[in-house]
Structure formats: C-alpha cells, structure tokens
Write a structure and sequence with these properties.
alpha/beta, 314 residues, 7-stranded mixed sheet, 39% helix
Length: 314
C-alpha cells in the first residue's frame, strides 16, 4: 500500500522522467511570430527544430549593387512575378566569389518585403527538413523564399536528395507561395573529377553522349528553372564598386579619387577584385581616415584607365 507522500514522490519522479524524455525526442516544428521579422533562420537545437526571427536584417538596397545589372534584372523580374502571384522559377545563382550573389537576394528581400515577401535561411545540413518547412508555410498569405547560401554537396549527402526531390520529382509538390533561391561557386553543386569524363559514350558517327555519372551531377542544378551567372570584375568595375561603398560611408569625392591607387593595391594583396574585397577596402579606408576625411586630401595619383603599372591585372 502506497502512502500519500510516497505516491506524490512517485508522481513527481514520473513527471521529471517524462520531461527529460520530451526534451530528447523530436518535436514538431512550431510556427514563429511571423510579425517579428521579414527573415527567419531554420535551426536545430537539442533535437528541436526552430524558426528564429532575424532581429537585424542586412539593409542592402538594390542601388548599392553595381556592375551586376543583367543579373539584377533577371532576379528582380522573377521575384516580382512571384510576389504578384504569377508563375516563377527556383533560382540558382552561381559564379565568381564575392560578386554579389547573396547580397542580391538580400536586396530583393528588402525591396519586396512591403509586398509580403519573406525569407527563410536554411543550412544545407537541414535541407532534409524542407518538406516540414513547406507544410508549415503552406497556408500563410506571405510569399516565402527559402535561401540556401554557398550551397555545394559532397557525394552521398542526405540534403542533396531532399533538395532534388523538392525542386522537381517529389509526389508532394511545394506550394505556390514557396521558391528556393540558392547561391554556389559550383555551377553543378557537386565536385567534378577528371575520371568522370571516362563515362562519356562515343558513337560511331562521332557524337558524344554524357555517361550516367555526368548526368547525375548535372541533374540537381538542372532542376532550378532559372540560372543567374556572375563573373569576375574588371579593374574599372572593381573601382566603381569600391567608390560606391566609400560613398555609403560618407567619404568625400575628393578622398575617393585619392584612394584609387590604395584601393588597387588592396586588391593586389588580396588576389581578387571582387565586390566583397571592394566593400572590405571601403570599411578599412573609412575607418582609418574617419577623423580627417573632412580635411583636404592630397592630390590623387595619376592612374590610367588600365591602372598603375603592375596593378592592371589585379
């Protein structure tokens, strides 16, 4: 026979055990406060899936992004169609590093968020949960872009098959209020090896057909309806981007002209003329010269259109 104190103790221990079990068992994805932000991150913590509002969304405007006008126009057109409720495509943005792929997606979010566009950032390791995310937002009035940054896969990763099925192939199609925007430095998202070329089939008439290995490697990227390619910047384009970022830090035009040679040396030392390098130079320059930017700068160095000697191939 159990006495009341013993019974209460037993119940308390049972409740504690149940609490510990619930903490380690998978929990269903719970909707966040959709009014808390225009962007959200999908995270897993202690076996629980969470959608966390991004408190400080990057304030990148389309006007901040120079020398990518064709890419900007294509992504804008697709996003505008999507927000308006018209057919639109999943997008893969590929190409040179630091050329503005992810920045362009963030700028589109800021441009169209007043019209109901929202963004959910998902790491590639969590792509296996894409169906749960799609189900969660299916009945929402907003339009959602699922954003996968710097996406690439190694052989056999689980997220590869999940993304492939969600793009095109699964019996459960994504709702019309969801698109996937991904960026990558790899056009086909998978590593490509010289040995893969051995699978090509050579026909008697000289025609060449890719083998199964090649077909598999291009099958994922092919399921994105829109490809947007980015290319390395020329020296003139790099300088124009750096000047734009310097203006955003309130650097006077005279100081921007004086900083050209220093800007080129910065790129030479980094081995890249990307937009990211231009932005990093602008932050460094404006920070170092914050106290004296209002003073008259020294006369700018004479630089030809090709740049100073030794810098024209940065």
């Amino acid at each position: 026979m159990l006495y009341p104190d013993s019974l209460n103790h037993l119940v308390a221990r049972a409740e504690a055990l149940i609490g510990r079990l619930e903490a380690v068992l998978p929990q269903p994805l719970v909707a966040p406060d959709w009014n808390a932000s225009i962007a959200f991150r999908y995270r897993k913590r202690n076996g629980r899936s969470l959608l966390e509002p991004v408190r400080h969304v990057a304030q990148i405007a389309l006007s901040n992004l120079l020398e990518v006008e064709p890419q900007k126009e294509r992504l804008l057109r697709n996003t505008r169609q999507f927000v308006a409720g018209h057919p639109a495509n999943n997008v893969l943005l590929t190409g040179a590093r630091g050329t503005g792929k992810s920045s362009l997606i963030k700028a589109c979010l800021n441009e169209f968020s007043p019209q109901g566009l929202r963004l959910i950032e998902v790491d590639k390791a969590d792509l296996v949960d894409l169906p749960d995310l799609v189900d969660l937002v299916a009945e929402r009035p907003e339009r959602f872009v699922i954003f996968c940054d710097d996406l690439s896969f190694d052989e056999g990763e689980a997220g590869y098959k999940a993304l492939k099925s969600m793009l095109d192939g699964s019996v459960a199609a994504a709702g019309d209020n969801v698109l996937i925007y991904a960026t990558s430095n790899r056009r086909h998202l998978l590593p490509e090896y010289m040995k893969d070329n051995l699978t090509y089939q050579h026909q008697p008439d000289g025609e060449v057909h890719p083998g199964e290995v090649i077909e598999e490697k291009i099958s994922l990227s092919e399921r994105f309806g829109l490809w947007v390619s980015f290319y390395p910047f020329s020296q003139a384009e790099y300088l124009a981007i750096a000047a734009q970022w310097l203006r955003s830090f309130d650097v006077p035009e005279e100081a921007i002209a004086a900083a050209r040679q220093e800007c080129l040396v910065w790129a030479l030392e980094r081995g890249s003329r990307s937009g990211r390098v231009a932005y990093q130079f602008a932050r460094d320059y404006s920070g170092r010269h914050h106290g004296d930017l209002l003073e008259a700068p020294s006369a700018p160095a004479v630089i030809t259109a090709e740049g100073p000697e030794g810098l024209d191939h940065v």
